What does this fold into?
Amino acid sequence: MSRVFNFSAGPSTLPESVLEICAKEMLDCHGTGQSVMEMSHRSAAYKPIIEGCEAKIRDLMHIPDNYRVLFLQGGASLQFAMIPLNLNKTGRAAYVDTGVWSKKAIEEARRFLTTVDVVASSRDRGCCYIPEIRKIEGDYDYVHITLNNTIYGTKWSYLPDTGDIPLVCDCSSNILSEPIDVTKFGVLYAGAQKNLAPAGVTLVIIRDDLIREDLPASVPTMLRYDTHAKNGSMFNTPPCYSIYVMGLVLDWVKSCGGAEGMKKRNEEKAACLYDFLDSSDYYHATVEKGSRSLMNVPFLTKETDPEKAAVINKKFVSEAAKAGLVNLAGHRLVGGMRASIYNAMSLEGVQALVAFMKKFAAENPID
Ligand SMILES: Cc1ncc(COP(=O)(O)O)c(C=O)c1O
It folds into this structure.
C-alpha cells in the first residue's frame, strides 16, 4: 500500500486509523452482518451510531443543552440559504466579506432579505487579511462571518461583539481545529468534508431560540431548522455513512486530546510551514501575519513575471504530485499554491512538503 500526503482543500485527508476501521467494518459492522451503508437509518443498529456521533460532538465542543446539533445535507452552500430563510424577521442582516465563500453567502442572502449590509470587507487587499471590526451594531436579524477562509487562507483571531444580535458562522474549514466557544454564536455550520467526515453531511449547531415554528408557509419543509430539530435529523434519510465516519473521526480527535490537542498539533504544523515561508527567499506566504489560517496555507514563489510564475507553479504542483504530495494547486480563482493541512494531516506530511519545497527551489532558480 502506498499512500500519498493529500493537501486537498476538501474533500480531504482522513485519519488512516479511521479508514482502517471503516475497512474492517465494511462488511459487518459490530456483528450486525451488515455494512453501515446498508442499514436502515431507523434500525436499532443505526440508532447508536447517530446518537453517539451527536454525543461525541457535544462533548468535544462543549455544546450547551440549549443548542441543537443537526446533521443535514446540501453542503455548507445550502446553509447560505437556510440561514436567511430561518432567521429572517425584519429582512435585515449584516455580513463580513472575507472571500469567495462569504460572497456566496451574501449573494444567497440577497435573494431572501431586503437589506444585506456588508459591514466590513478585506477585498481592498485581495482578501489577504481579516478586517478589524470589533463591534457590530444595528437593527439586524443576525451577523454572518466566515471564520476560516479556505481559498485565501485567512482566519479570524477574534470575534466581533454583536451584543444581542445572533452571530452566525461558517466554520466549514476550521471546525474542531482548535477550541471554539459555542456560546458566542447563534448558529455554527460546517460542511464535513474537511475536518469531520467524507462529503455528504453538514453539521449545524443552533441555539434553541433561533429554531422557529412561525416561518412563512413558503419556506420549504426541508429548509426549515424546526423540521430537522423535531425529527432528530431523521425527517428524511440522513447521510448515514458520513455520520458513521464522523463518529469515528471524533473518536480519533478525542484520542488526540480533543480540540485542545488539535490546536497544539495544528499550530506545530502551521509553524513548520509558515516559518519556512517567512525565512525563504524563493517562496512567500500570501496572508498577513495575525490573519493566518492554521488550516489553509496559500503561497507563491517570488517570480514576478506572471507568465514565468504560471510555468513555475504548474511545474511545482506536478513535481510535488510525483513526489507523493498531491493537490497543492491554489484555488482556480486565485492561482499559486495552497497546502491544506487539516486536522488529519500529520506533521510528517508538512515536513515532507517543506523538504520538497527546498529541493524544488534549489533545482528551479528564479533569475
Ligand atoms: C468556508 C467554506 N464555506 C462553504 C463551502 C461550501 O461547502 P459545500 O461544498 O459543502 O457546499 C466551502 C467549501 O469548500 C468552504 O470552504
About this structure: The CA atoms of residues 218 and 313 lie 49 Å apart.
